[in-house]
Amino acid sequence: MKPMLSIGSIVLTVEDISRAGDFWRTALGYVNRNEPSDDWVILDPPGKTDWSAPGASLALSVTGYPQHYPPRIHLDLYAEDQAAEVTRLLGLGAREVDWHDYPDDADWVVLEDTEGNRFCVVDTGPYPQG
């Protein structure tokens, strides 16, 4: 049976659409689906041409509401070279989150984008089986 639903877009609220768009386009290599408006843009994986193409889109929305901490949702970004990706993202304007609840065997690092939206950079080791 074909699934009835799939994740199409993940929406992040932002204050500065241009700054956030620049960050996420560069971080993920995504492209604008259409020309951004003053308060909305959808970013797609490169080459995505229809709704059923693989890869979730990322939408950025200016809402005027303050960020909530801790946020109730975040992105997990998978990285083969976690240290290099964390360094690259910090260079793009991401910030480290002062979080003290990492377990000793944590395979993720918590960062936030230019708008305070949190995300984790996860070290992708062997894929769990079973």
From TrEMBL:
Record InterPro entries: Glyas_Bleomycin-R_OHBP_Dase, Glyoxalase_6, VOC_core
Positions of transmembrane segments: none
PROSITE patterns documented for this protein: VOC
Domain (VOC): residue spans on this chain: 6-124
Pfam family, one: Glyoxalase_6
Record-linked SUPFAM superfamilies: Glyoxalase/Bleomycin resistance protein/Dihydroxybiphenyl dioxygenase (SSF54593)
Alphabetized PANTHER family for the sequence: CONSERVED PROTEIN, HYPOTHETICAL FUSION PROTEIN
Protein's name according to its UniProt entry: Glyoxalase-like domain protein
